[in-house]
Specification:
single chain; alpha/beta; Rossmann fold; five-stranded parallel beta sheet; 5 strands
Length: 187
């Protein structure tokens, strides 16, 4: 399938965005990228470092990180060749993205999983920086997700309510059906 626009997969941290993007790429025979990977590569190339996304976040602080992230997303969305982009958990709620930036993003798909499933996945790598100061990390995670979910659902062209048991391929198949419908209606 030739992509008529970027397919952006959003959702809360550890919702399964990269897994869905990988499955979608395999089914469509199209490459996919993770915006956090591109951010990390760009930052490390420029700074001459080898930091993780978490370390870059700590080093730049929230505002610096979000400004840099917005620059990366603009480049990805403006690129002529369209693809599949797994977005960072907070990418679409980035305050440095303009309404015009978001219009240029392409199709937005939200993968939504229950907070407990996502939180348990996150904790396998330890408490992330954005939750380290929280008295109750899970409650803080839930609060953050309430805000993000509302935003994602308003922006998304498709919301997939995954229960943590659905396969990335079944999610990808649902995305393909939605793309075909969307693109047929545009054509």
């Amino acid at each position: 399938m030739h992509l008529l626009e970027n397919i952006n997969i959003c959702g809360i941290k550890h919702a399964g965005k990269s897994s869905a993007a990988n499955a979608l790429g395999e089914l469509l025979k199209v490459s996919w990228i993770d915006s956090d990977d591109i951010l990390r590569e760009e930052y490390n190339y420029t700074a001459g470092t080898s930091l993780s996304v978490r370390e870059i976040y700590r080093k730049l602080g929230e505002e610096g990180f979000r400004k840099f992230e917005a620059e990366i997303l603009r480049k990805l969305w403006e690129y002529d060749e369209k693809g599949i982009i797994a977005l960072g958990g907070g990418a679409l709620s980035n305050p440095f993205l303009t309404e015009n930036d978001l219009k240029n993003a392409g199709m937005i798909v939200c993968i939504d999983v229950p907070d407990r499933i996502a939180f348990d996945r996150i904790m396998k790598k330890g408490v992330p920086p954005f939750l380290q100061q929280a008295e109750d990390p899970f409650a803080s995670f839930q609060e953050m997700n309430r805000e993000r979910r509302s935003f994602f659902e308003k922006m998304a062209h498709l919301v997939i309510h995954a229960d943590g048991q659905s396969s990335p391929y079944s999610n990808a198949e649902e995305i393909i059906r939605a793309c075909e419908k969307r693109w047929n209606n545009k054509g």
